[in-house]
Write a structure and sequence with these properties.
The chain is an alpha+beta fold and about 400 residues long. It folds into two domains: about 160 residues; about 200 residues, SGNH hydrolase (Rossmann fold), CATH 3.40.50.1110. Helix 4 packs parallel to helix 6. It comes from Actinoplanes oblitus. This is GDSL-type esterase/lipase family protein.
Length: about 400
Amino acid sequence: MRWDGAAGLAGGVILLLAGCGAVSASPPATVAGSVPASPSAGAAAEGWVATWGAAMTDGGQSFHRQTVRQIVHTSVAGDGARLRLSHAFGTTPLVIGGVHVARRATGSGIERATDTAVTFGGKATVTIPAGGSVTSDRVDFAVPADADLAVSVYLPATTGETTRHPLATQHTYIGTGDQLTATTVSGATTSSSYFFLTGLDVFDSGADGTIVAFGASITDGLGSTVGAARRWPDLLADRLRADGRTIGVVNTGISGNRLTADGRDGRGESAAHRFDQDVLQRTGVRWVIISDDPLNDLGSTHPPATDELIGAYRQLIDRGHAAGIKVICSTLTPFHGAAYWSSAGERGRTAVNAFVRGAGSGCDAVLDQDTATHDPAAPTRYLPANDSGDHLHPGDKGMQVIAEAVDLDWLD
């Protein structure tokens, strides 16, 4: 187990490592100490790569003596696994009464023969301080690619407001009492959020690294079919596997997120404030795609000046390069017809897109989501086939064309 420190989102880059251990009936581990900063890209050389992840925000519901079973969809396979739990927005210590991982069957059901206990420093339970996070021991668990896993967490004590990812595009199942080993969660209620679970790494000595999709609701998958893994980062993972590449894809989009301003109640801290936590500290990261955050700045009540947006974008590009990461910049998709569209916002989108496409941006490549999705006859709007219906978010077809617009040669 490693403690990953208090979640100061502007902190240094951390290499997440973990040891092995067996389930123990001894008292819970109490997380303490810190991990020295070091480049996360080195994790790929050691065989670890992130196969799934989610960015965390505030505002989650409280739990008490409940089991939360969360469904995650993997991008790459491995013969060992480790989980990362975040209590970044907690205000009191968080008691984790047990964690299990299994192959999912259907609904809240698991394939019982695959059910495996997860340990932390050799113990079945762990207490995470407010603002902290923890990475589990290595679990001897064969993780398949392109598959659903069920991660069950038992919360024996009152948690208070929880650290969460609001839009899971999957159902999370919540049951009363300790149901860690239950084949299905009895009396389950459902939620659309992930709670505490922020990362799943796998061990594959042949892995090439991790690409992080970093953005807002379009990256997060709003508008795509729930439970179908149709977000554009999921579809990019499909293309990478079909091309024979072992590259993990992590989606750290947050719906409502902004480039320049922090949000509350699930909108997340600004892209600038969370870039270290949600990009640089991901295991094995070698590439980042910076996507749609500026649309929410442009649609806000008091939008920042274009120069401020471009300056913030430049800072992210520079920070990525300083960490040895290739930065792929995205143009902004059309949003004419959306509730917060304005002519001023359209001018801002045009200016941001001109910067991204320009020779002086510093971007290593450009993912032209604008050209991929807009209507050639009305370039400020989506092509109807790509529109989810709200004129802001692409539907499944729009997600597909974004994924197809990624040139896989950028990842050589």
